[in-house]
Design goal:
Two copies of one chain form a homodimer. Chain A has 398 residues and is an alpha/beta fold. Chain A folds into four domains: 158 residues, Molybdenum Cofactor Biosythetic Enzyme, Chain A, CATH 3.40.980.10; 50 residues, Molybdopterin biosynthesis moea protein, domain 2 (Alpha-Beta Complex), CATH 3.90.105.10; 80 residues, Molybdopterin biosynthesis moea protein, domain 3 (Molybdopterin biosynthesis moeA protein, domain 3, Beta Complex); 74 residues, MoeA, C-terminal, domain IV (Beta-clip, Beta Barrel), CATH 2.40.340. Helix content of chain A is 18%, strand content 29%. Chain A has seven helices and 26 strands. A six-stranded mixed sheet of chain A has the order 7-4-6-5-9-8, with no helix packed on it. A six-stranded mixed sheet of chain A has the order 16-13-17-21-20-18, with helices on both faces. Chain A has a five-stranded mixed β-barrel with strand order 22-24-23-25-26. Chain A is elongated and about 90 Å long. The two termini of chain A are 27 Å apart. Chains A and B meet through α2, β15, α3, α6 and α7 of A and α2, β15, α3, α6 and α7 of B.
Chain lengths: 398, 398
């Protein structure tokens, strides 16, 4: 059994970012930049007014003659002479030879004569050209996931197209004689398959495209035949068939097609039987069949794997810190991942309360959990009040 | 000018959840439940083994005769008599009359004879039927946003279809003579439109469908004509045209079509000129034209509005707490929203460092910000180390 961190590192070491495609800005939200974004213009393009008011020369004593108006998008064509002023608005280009703006609240216009209640100050209420960015500057790095604000920045930089990683394609293969798709007939002692579509949703949450394969019965031949039909897949995820019992069919079925095992069995709970390897150049991540184990392992191993495949600079879920609201007992040799509720204390700090029931068969409790409390191997008992590392599950549609 | 919280409350008070549609489980990720999900089966369906091992009667002394095997999905047909045992695997139904499982690591099978190294304990390694959920139980409430774990739970509950709110349709109308779409010709003093597509992305991040309207020139007639063509829209968002200057065209243009103003001008920075009202039954949210103001107001007002329209139980972004890494000065009468970087101290607590430059024209800094530090009106100076409310921007593809 290998430690969680080693397994994560060995998975990431084998994965390379997928190829690049060009998408329009309108479709780029949530995608990962394959190249940096460089500004194609200077913003603001010149000195502009920060307020609605009057552009004039700060050295003048006034009163001023209003010689024109420059609404945003309609710059004043001439220049501003002594004791002359031009009406400007937020974002208006400052007319030539003006060097100050008096805001309208501090000015009185009577016909074309302007007087001010406060003497103009040089450069007041003027935003310098290029204050946000200049043409050619690197605004976003490759590997950035494009959120709404980044989309705005790319637009302002005048880039209608962006080069992004294509969405990795993740095939999901659930195995087991006992499982049936929701709504399909379920045999005696059977259960409804929940892993395939939960992992498909997890795959979507990471920005990849899931391909849900038909359920494979517990037969090495069926699993091998499924492998023969894979095409255009960046990662094959299996669930079930990897236990320590007699039903270790994934290795047998894929082994018949040349599967090369990297490792299996991780010192963790829930989810010991996890395998990783490669099948004819396609990485294979074998998750446990137990739904809670499959999803916890999905968070720990599949999310970072997809982040790597899609070229993200920072992949996976960050480890944060919370305070234990209740004591937890000492841990054994396997890293534990306690399903927990989160609250905030009066100072706003996160409080984690692990559920009393931590049995890995309880999918309902996993769905209610807001965090995983990470308990390293051989962690000593921890009283209430102990700070503990957590992975939050309450965002990102996990 | 009204306070931020009052504006938020008045917006939410006018919005009602949109209608319902049925989607397949495979398409339900990220959607909002319109009805509760009830379990259609009991999970596990009966007592099952929690481990790979042997099912037997705890009162027996052994050795035992192995009379069969019950892989998951293939229950043992008979019952278990005295000194008899059946091979079981994780998830196997416990055969009739067996009441304990001995795990395989504690047992030795020689031919069909089983001996154990540890005496069986009654109910050991048996998961009771219904331990996760029972048929008819309410598993998820209406208003739940379906993440990956919830999708797994819905599947396990044997529900192939779910009733969800349809995605709200949010029309986005950018106005201004000075703006051009990315890649289109930009006039002198013009700028590239960033608000429409940034707000469209923000709309997507909240699970709604954006409809980006053509840019409206600064003309009340054009804006009125746009309003005439709206159809099937749950919320109209405008940007620009709402300033205190001469260019307050949204009210004029929409007013010609019966726009009823609820409020405008909010005591906040960035983003004072925000309007809200109703146009022929469609709510209208008028955001500032300044890109930073538009996006900050989008986070504060548009995200909760979409959450309400889509029937979410908990809408908008939570306010969390961070510690100031640097001092900030006293605030004036407008609530401020300082763009800030987040780090973690050695104990894992969040540290917020507001950027030195807070000018609302700096879209690049907004894109780099990881949080908004909330400064209430008239907040006194705050030294480094002060806990402050923040809204995190570093998740959810904002």
């Amino acid at each position: 059994m290998i430690p969680v961190a080693e397994a994560q590192a060995r998975i990431l070491a084998k994965l390379r970012p997928v190829g690049t495609e060009t998408v329009s800005l309108a479709e780029a939200w949530g995608r990962v930049l394959a190249d940096p974004v460089l500004a194609r213009r200077t913003q603001p393009p010149g000195d502009v007014s920060a307020m609605d008011g009057y552009a004039l020369r700060a050295a003048d004593a006034g009163p001023w003659t209003v010689i024109g108006s420059a609404p945003a998008g309609h710059p004043f064509a001439g220049s501003v002479g002594p004791d002359q002023t031009v009406r400007v608005f937020t974002g208006s280009l400052i007319p030539e030879d003006a060097d100050a703006v008096v805001i309208q609240e501090d000015a009185d216009q009577d016909g074309d004569v302007l007087t001010v209640r406060e003497a103009p100050r040089l450069r007041a209420h003027i935003r310098p050209g290029g204050g946000d960015f200049r043409e050619g500057e690197r605004l976003l790095e490759a590997g950035t996931v494009l959120g709404a604000r980044a989309i705005g920045l790319v637009a302002a930089a005048n880039c209608p197209w962006v080069a992004v990683r294509r969405r990795p394609r993740v095939a999901i293969l659930a195995t087991g004689d006992e499982i049936a798709l929701p709504g399909d007939p379920v045999g005696p002692g059977g259960i409804v398959s929940s892993n395939a579509h939960a992992l498909a949703a997890l795959t979507r949450s990471a920005g990849a495209t899931p391909v849900v394969l038909p359920i494979a019965r517990d037969s090495a031949e069926v699993i091998a035949a499924t492998a023969d039909q894979l095409g255009g897949i960046d990662l094959l995820v299996t669930t079930g068939g990897a236990s320590v019992g007699e039903h270790d069919l994934i290795q047998e079925g894929l082994g018949a097609r040349g599967f090369a095992l990297d490792f299996w069995q991780i010192a963790m709970r829930p989810g010991k039987p996890l395998l990783f390897g490669e099948l004819a150049g396609t990485p294979v991540l074998g998750l446990p069949g137990n739904p809670v184990s499959a999803l916890v392992c999905g968070v720990l191993f599949l999310l970072p794997a997809i982040a790597r495949l899609s070229g993200q600079r920072n992949g996976g879920l960050p480890v944060e810190t919370a305070t234990l609201a209740v004591p937890v007992k000492a841990n054994d040799h396997r890293a534990d991942h306690l399903r927990a509720r989160l609250e905030r204390d009066s100072a706003g700090a996160l409080l984690a309360t692990p559920f009393e029931r931590q049995d890995s068969s309880l999918l309902r409790l996993l769905a209610e959990a807001q965090a995983l409390v990470l308990r390293p191997p051989h962690a000593p008992p921890a009283p209430a009040g102990t700070p503990v590392p957590i992975i939050r599950l309450d965002g990102g549609l996990l």
